[in-house]
Every structure is written in C-alpha cells, then in structure tokens.
Amino acid sequence: AQSVTQLGSHVSVSEGALVLLRCNYSSSVPPYLFWYVQYPNQGLQLLLKYTSAATLVKGINGFEAEFKKSETSFHLTKPSAHMSDAAEYFCAVYTGTASKLTFGTGTRLQVTL
Amino acid sequence: SQTIHQWPATLVQPVGSPLSLECTVEGTSNPNLYWYRQAAGRGLQLLFYSVGIGQISSEVPQNLSASRPQDRQFILSSKKLLLSDSGFYLCAWSRGLGETQYFGPGTRLLVL
User: Fold this and answer.
1) Residue A92: its pLDDT value, please?
2) Which residues on chain B are in Cβ contact (under 8 Å) with A105?
3) Residue A42: how many other CB atoms lie within 10 Å
4) Gap between the Cα atoms of B90 and B92, Å rounded
C-alpha cells in the first residue's frame, strides 16, 4: 500500500524566512513523489516531481525537494518565502501498486510581513 | 499544448436536484481522466478515474456517477443531490497511471 503524511496542516513563516513543508511516504517499492500547489479557488499546479533520478529536485517558483529513502521523506523547501507563496501544498505518491496517485491532506502556508 | 476545461465554475443547487459537471481536455489523445472532490478543510478524494472511452473505475460508493462518452470528455453526474455533495470538484488528466496529473480550474458546488 502507498500513503503520504503531511505533518502540520498549517505553517506560518515570515516573508524572507525559510519555508519547510514536511512529507513522509510509506511504500514497499520505489515511489514517484510529487508536490502540488493550490491557490484559493483554483486547481492544483505541479511544483515538482521525483521519479528516481536525482534525489534533489528543483521545481518552479524557487522550490525544491529532497528524496531521502532512509527517512522515507520528501520535504519541500524554499530559502526565502514571498507573500505570493501563500497557498495550500499537497504531497502525493505513486508506486504502481495502486492505479492512482495518493495525496496527503495538505499544508496551508501563511506568509506574514 | 494541452488544456483542460471545467464548467460551470460555480453552481448552487437544491437538495434532490440532478447534477451534471463537464470536463474536457484539448491537445492530447487517450488521456487518463480523473474526478476529485475537495470538501472544506479536507484533502483530495478521488471519486472516479477512466483509462478509456466507456471505462470508469469508482473509488468510493456514493451518490455520484461518471461517464466518458468521448475520448477527451468526462462527465460527473447525480440523479439526486445531497447536502453532503457540496464541495470543490476537480477534474484532472494524465498520460498514464502514475504520471503527472494536470488539473482543471474546478467547479464549486453548493447544495442547499
């Protein structure tokens, strides 16, 4: 079975501070991992994905994530938060044992001045 | 390039009325298609997916049904809406199972 856990349903950071959104996955086979962003009243947009190539994946808008097999983690980071980063972020996993992506419950990022 | 459309953007319906939400994809052929529901304060729930015309897989038993009458058209329906059907409905497509899913703009449904 495949699953993802996003720690922290709400995260608040100051503008210019480091953004760290946590995602841990459960899988018995090598996974594909995704991060999506959702702005209010919009669909989801792909930020980045890991498909067994480089463990450090760079995405759009300055975000990146590192696949750590030993920790079963795929945390999303950005060195300096911007007000426009305020949104909801979803981690997702695919392993081939299920015919679908499995999404986490999401983390809402708030950026304050 | 590929685009995905959903309509309507918003919908307010009385309890017991029928529902039809439409999703179409342009710029690709034989996509996998998905319907998700996002209830307030909750994550994404996969409702249906389709790997081809007339092929529908249901993920959870519910008051809804889906159909795929054409290669790039996916319809979500209900004969009688319930209050619990309120939510944000998202359609998505992918080239294959496990590949990146691309989402439409969503339909916000309020059942009163």
Assistant:
1) 93
2) 42-43
3) 16
4) 7
Distance CA B97, CA A26 (A): 19
d(CA B29, CA B62): 29
Compute the distance between CA of residue B91 and CA of residue B72 in angstroms, rounded to an integer: 12
Cβ <8 Å between A49 and B59: no
pLDDT, tens digit (0-9, with 9 covering 90-100), for A7-46:
999 999 999 999 999 999 998 788 899 999 999 889 999 9
A96 in contact with chain B, both atoms CB, cutoff 8 A: yes
Q: Please report the sign of the dihedral spanned by the C-alpha atoms of residue B68, residue B105, residue A32, residue B47.
A: negative
For residue range B9-54, list pLDDT tens digits in order: 999 999 999 999 999 999 999 999 999 999 876 788 899 999 999 9
- B95 in contact with A at a CB cutoff of 8 Å? no
